[in-house]
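Recall the central idea of this unit: under ordinary conditions, the amino acid sequence of a chain determines the structure it adopts. In this exercise we apply that idea directly, starting from the sequence alone.
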Amino acid sequence: MDERGPGEGRGHRGRGRPRVRRMIGDGGAFRCFGPLCGWPDEVVLLLPEEIEALRLVDLAGFEQEEAAIALGISRKTLWRDLHEARKKVADALVHGKTIQIVGCGRRRGERCPGDE
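Accordingly, the structure predicted from this sequence is:
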């Protein structure tokens, strides 16, 4: 009997199609962010593509269609990334969690303060 669970096998890491590689520009100054008071135990991880979706739509003012084209993905995929990013940021703000960007500072050899 096959012991794999649903969505496992065939080279996929979950259900559906594999993730499309996004065309993310310069990562900018990716950092970790957290509340100033207390020592939060929980961390919210944001993916670089979620940060880029937030940047393009919420900061640069792109329409979702324009942002999707810039990232080389479908509008539906952009919407999903944007929705997840906004949900994670809201969770961190409301519940006092640290926001950590996946890959934070690694390209520049920096260390996150939380790693010390």
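The chain has three helices and five strands.
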